[in-house]
Write a structure and sequence with these properties.
The complex is a heterodimer of chains A (587) and B (412).
Chain A lengths: L2 E2 L3 E6 L3 H12 L4 E4 L7 H4 L8 H6 L12 E4 L7 E2 L15 H4 L14 H9 L17 H15 L7 E2 L2 E2 L23 H13 L4 E2 L9 E2 L5 E2 L21 H4 L1 H4 L5 E4 L3 E7 L6 E7 L5 E11 L3 H11 L22 E8 L16 E3 L18 E5 L21 H10 L3 E8 L8 E9 L5 E6 L4 H20 L4 E5 L42 E2 L16 H19 L8
Parallel strand pairs in A: 1-14, 2-3, 2-14, 3-11, 4-20, 14-22
Antiparallel strand pairs in A: 4-5, 6-7, 8-16, 9-10, 12-13, 13-14, 15-18, 15-21, 16-17, 17-18, 19-20
Chain B lengths: L2 H21 L6 H13 L2 H5 L12 E4 L2 E4 L16 H10 L14 H4 L4 H11 L12 E2 L9 H9 L13 H11 L5 H4 L17 E3 L2 E3 L15 H10 L10 H8 L6 H11 L18 H18 L17 H4 L4 H9 L1 E2 L11 E2 L8 H12 L11 H13 L2
Antiparallel strand pairs in B: 1-2, 2-3, 4-5, 6-7
Helix pairs in contact in B: 2-6, 4-6, 8-12, 10-12, 13-16, 15-17, 16-17
Classes of the chains: A alpha/beta (587), B mainly alpha (412).
């Protein structure tokens, strides 16, 4: 029997980017807020000091900051006629754990989606005809436009201090920036990072081939910065320990660095760590949440009553809690009816490896969002007529790291182990480089999340089941993008080049990204979405999912964090300016 | 209204007036109470008399002095365990002369040698404010000193040697701002309690005011305007910003100063922090002799340089310039170059969190390196920091680091 705690105005499930942003905005509005976080408290100086933060074995190989499957995991299968099995070691994607969530272990790549991405279906139908879209492709328009979200993107980038060069300032194309991007109301808060040799050579080659390279937008700061919350951030040291690591010198944006110092000053905010929410409680009508139930590490069960429940966990766990709590109709792929778990999507990445024998590349001078990029082949920036696919992605020379254990480029034909391999890695380290594409992943009728019929977690709750495979559209897209990238690679005059387009089937043991999207999709129609345009549940008005990637109707050719942060501000505004005045359905 | 009630009311007003007269103050005086509340902040009473998370002024945490443990007592108006039954004169005597209720001698952990500079009006204003805080019944055993220091009469002799009672006398040759700063620094702000070197008896070395002293495992740095050992390179704005926010382009407050910033200086008026800056930057000016730096090709310096590059430069930068309001500047820092390396060694071994204030909420942390650097390595990097980028200070030995390590292991 759960012990009942005193009522709060707001309970937040998960203290990552969205949880900390909503916590700050709602505590500032005077509400009594508690955030319940499954994992431990994490603080820069204590948990990832520069004295040992750059420990590749501990963090990148042994995955110290990530969720342990023994605590929570999911089951996986490619096809609906297969039996899903539990993931016992995360490797294809890496859900975070603890305060800061994915905002701790991300690379810092801070991308806005394209204006046309937000009206994807209507745009493609209008330009290419409805008949051109595959029948089982379930992409849909977002319920918000780029123009509406722009001020929120701007706020999140100012929170992070993002470094970059604008390519479009209020409609005026800027030299040196991304000419394809949506308009920006202001320049990036800090100038672009300095680039390494490989990225510089890539940019020269891309220009030669007729493209428009620009520095990747990075929340690993090029210079010290004070954000609008008064919090000070440091300059990136280009150490190359970003993804899978916490940043020890306050230069990679994270909830710890950018929000928590200010949030924790509010006496009306508390955080309850090492406690996992097991369900959202509803009243007898099923139309109103009464709070949540959670379990602490001693196995004690607590009921936290609250007037509002904000689901700010990682995407899988948002979907799982909605299903376990009976909020929204579960998606049924047979009938296409139902919404919770629908439109799970991912990312379609690929690479081109090159060796530049006569160049010394110093790949260890890097940051998670380093690099020169082109956006010519993203979204609908290029004509898809006759290509046989839709979608695209950015591509370029992103130099996230040159860490010694996992950075081992070798020429083609090198044995996989032994003396020859050792010799080749020693010879190639300074000359090998990986270019990459970061492609979209559109949604399909047979790609979804539901509750596993067999496997249960330690509380006896069904695990989340993922059913996902690459579709022809994505594989063709990847092949096309990889060819274009290889053309630029060749213009760099490499001594060796090999292209690796993405191939199916999807393999959950090979790491690509942790950009798992969809399942609690936001939309304009309750028949095809879980949330309305304010990220509010259609069914239970005091439950919001404020912008985690689970609200994406499909995934586009960019990293999700900037859009996640923007939607957090979008939702916070809807709550503070509208919902609090008149609690009820906003649509 | 009946005659009886009217008489009763008149009688009680009379009593109020009488008691007001007896305490020499008007309990209704909002101005005096407000002034007292501000002076309580200026004097940082809560810094010692309020335990973290405890009721305001109901008694503090044990204070470790070189002579033993003292606990700041309950100064709420509770009549039994607080100061509710003290007269105004009792209060003034305690604050300014170290003579408590019934003549009990206070220990100078209570900074009466500084508070003696305060005007009677200011002291009574504090008294008026403290009379309004909620009375809390909390018995504090203040004197936990070992023999013979636990004998309070010892303080009679101590006072005779170390204590000069007397009010602050304004210097007519200086500006009103300077005099206000001097009054705060010498009186309520009691800066010298930490920053003035002490003699063997724990009394101020009054010929070396504010030139730096060790307490509680920290070196409270020289805060005179000395260009090399003090803060003479700071501008008035730098110092005012530091007091107000806990940080500036040179450094960040941590340790006991973080507490002083939190409870006191960050809540001072802009005029008062500027006045303090005006006074401090006009005191003890000059250039103390800068020693010749340890040569860069000294083996210890070379070892220190390598450790610095590996362990420190990511934040403090290769040239020791640090980052304004985030990572203290080491080049030119008087704390780094002070003769006593206690704080610098402590920082390297144990690290510390900087203060977080409403105006500067970051509160960054310096991580501990005690698990990673042995005594010789820590000594080398500290010696390197003290003798690079224009810095010059005596080398620090491995023995010094070793003693500091042992000391820190004992302290919380």
């Amino acid at each position: 029997m759960a012990r009942k705690l005193p009522r709060k105005d707001v309970v937040i499930i998960g203290l990552g980017w969205t949880g900390s942003i909503l916590g700050y905005e709602l505590a500032k509005a005077g509400l009594d807020v508690v955030a319940i976080e499954r994992g431990p408290w994490r603080d820069t100086a204590t948990d990832f000091p520069p004295a040992y933060a750059p420990d590749e074995l501990r963090y990148a190989v042994r995955l110290d900051l990530f969720l342990r499957p023994a605590q929570d995991t999911l089951t996986f299968r490619n096809k609906m006629n297969q039996t899903a099995l539990p993931i016992r070691n995360f490797s294809g994607f890496l859900p975070g754990n603890g305060v800061g969530g994915a905002g701790v272990h991300w690379n810092g790549q801070t991308w806005r989606f394209l204006p046309t991405d937000f009206k994807l279906r209507s745009h493609l139908e209008q330009r290419y005809g409805k008949a051109m879209l595959p029948d089982d492709m379930t992409i849909q328009d977002w319920p918000v436009s780029y123009d509406e979200l722009e001020p929120c993107y701007d706020r999140f980038e100012k929170l992070c201090g993002t470094s970059g060069k604008a390519g479009n300032l209020r409609g005026a194309i800027q030299a040196g920036g991304n000419p394809f991007e949506g308009w920006r109301s202001s320049e990036y808060p800090t100038p672009p990072l300095k680039q390494g040799l490989a990225a510089t050579l890539f940019a020269e080659a891309a220009r030669k081939v007729g493209h428009s390279p620009f520095p990747q937008p990075a929340s690993n700061l090029s210079e010290a910065y004070t954000n609008p919350l008064g919090i000070r951030m440091g300059q990136c040291s280009y150490c190359g320990f970003c993804e899978r690591f916490g940043c020890g010198n306050y230069s990679k944006a994270s909830p710890q660095v950018c929000v928590l110092p200010a949030l924790l000053r509010f006496p009306n905010f508390t955080a309850q760590t090492e406690s996992e929410v097991t369900r959202i409680n509803l009243d007898s009508t099923g139309k109103r949440a009464t709070g949540v139930t959670y379990v602490d590490t001693s196995g004690e069960e607590w009921e936290q009553p609250a007037d509002m429940v904000l689901l700010c966990a990682f995407s899988f766990f948002n979907v799982q809690l909605m299903l376990l709590s009976g909020i929204g109709k579960p998606y049924d792929p047979q009938t296409g009816q139902g919404v919770v778990g629908r439109n799970y999507a991912y990312q379609t990445t690929s690479g081109v490896s090159i060796i530049l024998k006569d160049k010394v590349l110093n790949p260890f001078i890097a940051t998670g969002a380093h690099g020169m990029i082109i956006d010519d082949y993203n979204g609908d920036n290029f004509d898809h007529t006759g290509l046989g696919f839709f979608g695209g992605g950015y591509m370029g020379a992103g130099q996230t790291n040159g860490r010694p254990i996992q950075t081992r480029p070798v020429p083609k034909g090198t044995p996989k182990w032994g003396a020859a391999w050792k010799k080749a890695t020693a010879e190639t380290y300074q000359h090998g480089f990986g270019l990459s594409t970061h492609g979209s992943s559109y949604s399909y009728r047979d790609c979804y999340l539901d509750l596993d019929p067999t496997y249960k977690d330690r509380f006896g709750r069904p695990l989340m089941r993922m059913t996902f495979d690459f579709h022809d559209n994505e594989l063709k897209m990847s092949a096309y993008l990889t060819e274009r990238l290889a053309e630029i690679a060749k213009a760099m005059n490499p001594s060796e080049v090999s292209a690796h387009p993405r191939k199916g089937p999807y393999d959950s043991t090979i790491y690509q990204t942790t950009h798992n999207t969809g399942g609690t999709v936001m939309g304009s129609d309750p028949a095809t979405s879980v949330l309305n345009r304010y990220c509010q549940s259609w069914d239970v008005h005091n439950v919001f999912v404020p912008g985690g990637a689970s609200v994406f109707p499909q995934n586009h050719g960019y990293n999700p964090t900037d859009t996640v942060g923007a939607l957090a501000y979008w939702t916070a505004d809807a709550i503070t300016t509208r919902y609090l005045k008149n609690p009820g359905p906003l649509m | 209204m009946t005659t009886a009630t009217r008489t009763l009311l008149a009688a009680s007003s009379a009593i109020l007036i009488l008691s007001g007269a007896a305490f020499g103050r008007d309990k209704q005086s909002f101005d005096q109470i407000g002034h007292g509340r501000y002076l309580t902040t200026l004097s940082d009473c809560a810094g010692c008399h309020t335990a973290p998370g405890g009721a305001p002024f109901a008694g503090g945490l044990p204070l470790q002095t070189p002579f033993g443990t003292l606990v700041a007592p309950n100064i709420t108006p509770d009549t039994e365990t607080g100061i509710g039954n003290w007269s105004d004169d009792d209060f003034v005597a305690a604050i300014r002369d170290g003579r408590g209720h019934n003549g009990v001698r206070l220990y100078p952990a209570m900074p009466y040698p500084a508070y003696t500079k305060m005007t009677r009006d200011d002291v009574l204003a504090i008294r008026a404010y403290l009379a309004t805080v909620p009375p809390v019944r909390h018995n504090v055993v203040a004197n936990q000193l070992p023999f013979p220091f636990n004998i309070r009469l010892v303080m009679l002799a101590w006072n005779w040697v170390n204590f000069t009672p007397g009010r602050y006398m304004p210097d007519p040759g200086k500006s009103a701002e300077w005099n206000r700063g001097a009054y705060i620094v010498q009186g309520p702000g009691h800066c010298g309690t930490c920053h003035t070197p002490k003699n063997l008896l724990g009394g101020d070395k009054s010929d070396q005011p504010l030139q730096g002293a060790v307490l509680q495992g920290w070196f409270a740095p020289n805060i005179t305007a000395d260009q090399h050992k003090g803060i003479g390179q700071w501008s008035k704005d730098d110092l005012a910003q530091y007091l107000k926010t806990g940080t500036n382009k040179w450094t960040l407050a941590s340790g006991p100063m973080a507490e002083a910033v939190t409870h006191s200086t960050s809540q001072m008026t802009d005029a008062d922090v500027t006045a303090i800056a005006a006074y401090l930057l006009d005191s003890g000016a000059g250039q103390s002799t800068k020693p010749a730096p340890v040569a860069a090709d000294d083996p210890v310096m070379k070892a220190g340089a390598a450790i610095y590059k590996d362990a420190c430069s990511a934040c403090h930068k290769g040239d020791g310039s640090g980052e304004s309001q985030l990572f203290p500047r080491l080049a030119g820092s008087s704390l780094v170059q002070s003769d006593d390396p206690t704080t610098l060694v402590r920082m390297v071994l144990h690290g510390s969190y900087a203060v977080a204030t409403p105006a500067a909420p970051t509160g960054p942390g310096m991580p501990a390196f005690d698990w990673r650097l042995n005594d010789a390595q820590a000594a080398a990097v500290v010696t390197y920091i003290r003798n690079s980028w224009g810095n010059a200070a005596p080398p620090v030995s491995a023995d010094t680091v070793s003693r500091s390590r042992a000391q820190l292991a004992k302290s919380p």
